[in-house]
Amino acid sequence: MTQEYAPAQPEHILTSTANDSKPVNRRFSTAPMMDWSDSNCRYFWRQLTKHAVLYSEMVTTGALIHGNRERFLAYDDVEHPLALQLGGSNPADLAQCARFAQDWGYDEVNLNVGCPSDRVQNNMIGACLMGHGDLVADCIKSMQDATDIDVTIKHRIGIDDLDTYEHMRDFVGKIATTGCKTFIVHARKAILQGLSPKENREVPPLKYDFVYRLKQEFPDLEIIINGGITNHDQITEMLTHVDGVMLGREAYHNPAVLLDVDARYYNEGSISEEDADKAALIRSLYPYIEAQLSKGATLHHISRHTLGLFNGQPGARMYRRHLSENAHRKDAGIEVMEQALALMGYN
C-alpha cells in the first residue's frame, strides 16, 4: 500500500493515517463481490469516483489468520474510503481480523451475513447467520472491542422461512444493542437450499419496502439499501427513504454509471457519463498497469474490469473482444490497451 504501487509493508501500514481525516460517508458505495471487487477493480473504479465507499471481496477469517495476509489485505492508498468485508462466526477470530483491518489502514470492517453459498454455510458464514442473532451480536461486539474503526454489517431481509419483516426487525434490533449503527440490507431473502448464489441474487423477490420500514422504525441507525439497483433515477428515489445505496453488479458491468456519483451524491462537480473522455480514463491506468506487470501480474488482471466502460458506444464489442483475446498473454502490455482503444477510433 504505497504511492509507488509496491507490495504493502506492515511497518508502513501501521503508520497510515489515510482513514483518520473524516468519517466514512456511505451515501453511495460499491458492493463486495467475489472475484470482482479486488484491488485492481477498485483502483479502476477510483478513477471514476473519488468519494464512493469501495468494499473488498469477502475474506474469511481463516484466510487472514492462517493464509497469506498481504495477498488479501494489500491495496493502493488511492482506494480510500475503503472497507474490508469479513466472513466468519467465531467472535475471537473476527476480533483478530478486525484488528488486522485497522492495522492495514482500512476505514471500516464489515461482517458478511448475506452470502448464501453452500460452502460458506457449512462454515457458519454468511446468510445462515440470520438464524443466529445472539451469535452475530457477540461477533459484532468482539469486533468493536478490538478496533477503533467502524464495524458494520451487511445482511439479507431473511432466510428460508425466517422471512417476515418482524424477524428482520428483531434481528436488527438485537445487533443494534451492541452499538452497531450501520446496516447494509440486501432487499431479498436468501433461500439456503435449492438455489445457487446467482439465483439467490435474482429469484427471491425484492422487498424494498422492508428496508424503508426498517429505517422508519430505527431512525437513528444508518440504513443502506442494496439489491437490483440499476440507475440513478432509482437511487435518487431510494434516498428519500434510506441513508445510502450500495450498487453491485451494475457498477461492475456498466462502470460508467460511477461517473455521475460525485456530482449527484457528494455535491462535487465532476465529469458526467456524457462528458467523460473514457479513453483518457483508461490511459490514466497505464502507470498502475506497468507497475503491476513488473510485479508479475498479467494485463488481464486489470483490463478485465474495464470491459463494460464503453457499453453502448460504437466499437465497444471490438474493444471487449480484443482485450478478452489478448490481455491474458504473458507479454501483453499497455500496447494491447492502445490497440483496443484504436479499434474504437481513439488515437
TrEMBL record:
InterPro entries: Aldolase_TIM (IPR013785), DUS-like_FMN-bd (IPR035587), DUS_fam (IPR001269), DusA (IPR004653), tRNA_hU_synthase_CS (IPR018517). Its EC number is 1.3.1.91. SUPFAM superfamilies: FMN-linked oxidoreductases (SSF51395). The record marks 112, 198, 201, 317, 320 as: Interacts with tRNA. Gene3D superfamilies: 1.20.120.1460, Aldolase class I (3.20.20.70). It is an enzyme of class 1 (oxidoreductase). It catalyses: 5,6-dihydrouridine(20) in tRNA + NADP(+) = uridine(20) in tRNA + NADPH + H(+); 5,6-dihydrouridine(20a) in tRNA + NADP(+) = uridine(20a) in tRNA + NADPH + H(+); 5,6-dihydrouridine(20) in tRNA + NAD(+) = uridine(20) in tRNA + NADH + H(+); 5,6-dihydrouridine(20a) in tRNA + NAD(+) = uridine(20a) in tRNA + NADH + H(+). Residues 30-340 form the DUS-like FMN-binding domain. Residues 1-25 are annotated as: Disordered. GO terms for molecular function: flavin adenine dinucleotide binding; FMN binding; tRNA binding; tRNA-dihydrouridine20 synthase activity; tRNA-dihydrouridine20a synthase activity. PANTHER family: FMN-LINKED OXIDOREDUCTASES SUPERFAMILY PROTEIN (PTHR42907). This is tRNA-dihydrouridine(20/20a) synthase. It comes from Thalassolituus oleivorans MIL-1. The lineage of its organism: Bacteria, Pseudomonadati, Pseudomonadota, Gammaproteobacteria, Oceanospirillales.
